[in-house]
Design brief:
The protein has ten helices and two strands, in the order H-E-H-H-H-H-H-H-H-H-H-E. With about 280 residues, it is mainly alpha-helical. The chain has two domains: about 160 residues, no CATH class; about 90 residues, no CATH class. The chain has a two-stranded parallel ribbon. The longest helix is centred in the middle third of the chain and has 33 residues. The protein is elongated.
Length: about 280
């Protein structure tokens, strides 16, 4: 799944903008919706496994190849299984992890040097690119940002899947209902609509509907696209805020806003009402 960010404008029509403003209940993103954060995870190793992709990408850069990166990851996870956070469960998860990744990379380098010495009696020193393994390095921030985005896309896809199951169980056709009596709008296309609009910005609602229909394997109208797009954008932003919240120790609204700014994720919240 691509980590591309939803286009806040997406070259939508004025009618699509009108749909967004009409859906007031779904256009609000609430920060810090719960007290759950990484510091309270019951299993440090289990929680950290959520963020393997950005960790592996950085270790490949540090060590130079995928095989050694995977070994370094195994060293880090093994340590977390045995020692947990070892009293270092403070601040931002990404800062904690970068220190662990540096240590794991050094441990892997030591393993390789020992093995080389045993095999050839040489003192070959492994060169590590540790300059990019720092808390605010552009590489780490980009990988971490991409990891959060990927997790958010997958979460949105799960929302869509759950709503499709709901509609099937209710015996309804998966078509958005426009009647005012409906309390909650359907969400059975939210991932596919936002994914296509993000990847094909500028196309008309009719063309987008055709692309979404191929993914959904059913007929999709331009009106459905217009109704679900603003909901999809609001849902994506909420899920992203929830994901960021989990990676902070003191996950109040100000801290989440600061992390959104630091990671360059403000675009995902454009046009939405963000509340604490």
């Amino acid at each position: 799944m691509s980590s591309s960010e939803p286009d806040s404008a997406a070259n939508t029509t004025s009618s699509e903008a009108g749909s967004a403003s009409a859906m007031t209940s779904s256009s609000v993103v609430r920060l810090s919706r719960s007290k759950q954060t990484w510091t309270g995870a019951g299993s440090a190793a289990g929680f950290v496994l959520r963020y393997l992709p950005p960790m592996k990408r950085l270790l490949v850069d540090v060590l130079g190849n995928e095989k050694d990166a995977e070994r370094a990851l195994a060293i880090l996870i093994s340590h977390l299984v045995k020692a947990g956070y070892s009293g270092h469960d403070q601040g931002r998860l990404r800062d904690f992890l970068i220190l662990g990744l540096r240590s794991a990379a050094k441990a892997r380098a030591t393993e390789m040097e020992t093995q080389a010495k045993q095999e050839s009696s040489s003192n070959a020193e492994i060169q590590l690119n540790l300059e990019i393994a720092k808390t605010e390095s552009k590489h780490w921030l980009r990988y971490w940002r991409d990891g959060l985005m990927d997790r958010t896309w997958r979460a949105l896809e799960r929302v869509q899947h759950a709503d499709r199951i709901r509609l099937v169980r209710a015996g309804h056709e998966p078509v958005s209902d426009t009647s005012e009596s409906v309390n909650e709008p359907n969400q059975d296309l939210v991932h596919d609509v936002l994914r296509i609009v993000t990847d094909h910005s500028g196309e008309s609602s009719e063309v987008i509907a055709g692309r979404v229909a191929e993914l959904a394997e059913r007929q999709v109208t331009a009106e459905e696209v217009k109704r679900q797009l603003p909901l999809a954008r609001a849902l994506f932003a909420q899920l992203l805020a929830d994901e960021i919240m989990l990676t902070l120790e003191n996950a109040d609204a100000a801290a989440i806003q600061d992390e959104i700014q630091r990671l360059g994720l403000k675009k995902a919240f454009a046009g939405l009402r963000v509340k604490s």
